[in-house]
Specification:
The structure holds two protein chains of two kinds. Chain A has strands spanning 4-6, 11-14, 19-25, 33-38, 45-50, 54-57, 60-65, 70-75, 84-91, 97-99, 103-108. By secondary structure, chain A is mostly beta strands. Chain A is globular, with a radius of gyration of 13 Å. Chain A starts with a strand and ends with a strand. Chain B is mainly beta. Chain B has strands at residues 5-7, 10-13, 19-24, 31-37, 44-50, 53-56, 65-68, 75-79, 88-95, 107-108, 112-116. In chain B, strands 2, 4, 5, 6, 9, 10 and 11 form a seven-stranded mixed sheet that branches. In chain B, strands 1-3-8-7 form a four-stranded antiparallel sheet, with no helix packed on it. In chain B, strand 5 and strand 6 form a beta hairpin. Chain B is globular. Classes of the chains: A mainly beta, B mainly beta.
């Protein structure tokens, strides 16, 4: 089993829709979690950090479920510009990040 | 604040040739990371430096890959000799790691796209 798993998608949603992705992790001792956004042929950009139960930033909400070992990312009122690959990362000892393969989101007009 | 700088942005070489990538982290960031991202996959950590010392190089193919961060600032990653399967984007990231919480957040440079033919 991979340490971090994501549904690759693609998720095709209309503008204005609400969409949610899940990311499961195998190490129950993991403490910190991150969502990165990666546009085509660009570097990953930090979107949100999750250190406790969750985090919210505008249209974006991340929630952590420790019992089931997953984190979710909810995007409300989707915009065309939200189209990207969303990478989940889990922090291990020594600040090592383990990434999932990413979930592709396509927002269409 | 300037971000992580990397060069070159693109490189095409033939197999068995050598190549080197350069990274300059965000000013003041003590920790520097090199990742390899193969198409369709997430970034995979190759090596992590804390100042000029290696913290983790467990996933670095040491028979062909080497990296150094001699003065604790910028870093070079080298591949010699390159193989076809080394075709990937090589990403450099940095973090400050001065305490807890947000100081562990990693910020990425634009990457070097390597094609081995």
């Amino acid at each position: 089993r991979k340490e971090v798993e994501q549904d690759p998608g693609p998720f095709n949603v209309p503008e204005g829709a609400t969409v949610a992705f899940n990311c499961t992790y195998s190490n129950s001792a993991s403490q910190s979690f991150f969502w990165y956004r990666q546009d085509c042929r660009k570097e990953p950009k930090l979107l949100m950090s999750v250190y406790s139960s969750g985090n919210e930033d505008g249209r974006f909400t991340a929630q952590l479920n420790r019992a089931s070992q997953y984190i979710s990312l909810l995007i409300r009122d989707s915009k065309l510009s939200d189209s990207a690959t969303y990478l989940c990362a889990v922090r291990k000892y020594g600040n090592k990040l383990v990434f999932g393969a990413g979930t592709i989101l396509r927002v269409k007009s | 604040e300037a971000g992580v700088a990397q060069s070159p942005r693109y490189k095409i070489i033939e197999k068995r040739q050598s190549v080197a990538f350069w990274c300059n982290p965000i000013s003041g960031h003590a920790t520097l990371y090199w990742y390899q991202q193969i198409l369709g996959q997430g970034p995979k950590l190759l090596i992590q430096f804390q100042n000029n010392g290696v913290v983790d190089d467990s996933q670095l193919p040491k028979d062909r890959f080497s990296a150094e961060r001699l003065k604790g600032v910028d870093s070079t990653l080298k591949i010699q000799p390159a193989k076809l399967e080394d075709s990937a984007v090589y990403l450099c990231a940095s973090s400050s790691n001065t305490g807890t919480g947000r100081t562990y957040e990693q910020y990425f440079g634009p990457g070097t796209r390597l094609t081995v033919t």
